Amino acid sequence: MLSIFRRRHRGSPPSPPAHMMPGVGPGDFWKIGETTVELVSEWAGLRRSDRVLDVGCGMGRIAWPLSHHLGRRGRYVGFDVVLKYVAWCQEQLGLDPQRFFFCYYPLHSTAYSESGEIAPEHFEFPWEPGLFTLAIATSLFTHLLPEATEHYLQQMRRVLKPGGRVFASFFLVDEGSRGVVAAGTTYPRFTERHDWGWLHNPAVPEDGVAFNKDWLLPLFEKSGLRVRSVHPGSWRGSTVPFYQDVIVATAV
Length: 252
Hints:
The chain is α/β, with parallel strands linked by helices.
């Protein structure tokens, strides 16, 4: 399926500048984006008419390949806490400004935005209820603490129409990953244990967060999101084409 997405591309995406790459993570930037969109299509049923909210859009790794799949009725909104990421998307991606929107909000993050004024657990998504049909959050909840995670799930449900889908990635601690977490062989390496999960670096809590699966899944249900499937990622030693674990859910 990935070859289909590549054939749809009109030209090559711009290369993100090297000085902005720290914090984005290792690997081929655009290939990861294409693979992610392929998996969104396969696991969450991506439609050409979807109205997509990309929570933590970064430098457009999802937006670029998604732009060649969404049709004329499709819409995309991405937001991030890093101003330079949002500005780069607006200035360099060259996407249709009538259908693709990138927004910056000064949310506080010990890993990405220490000067941010708004606590993420208090951030009300500025969109009307039921506006979106698909919410994507990759490498977002791996940088949110428990209270903010619960709040974001609730906000995602509020702006999704009933039947809308969620594609979100996590580091999930369960019987399949507990051993490698305890052994310290994962990237990132989780060092501090909590009732709800683990932290990579207690001095910078949002630098890397893993949640206990048994703690997290009830939050989806509590937020009005019915979990449809859980897909283990390669961080735990599997050979699947996505590094983090993915949860797909439906708004009820």
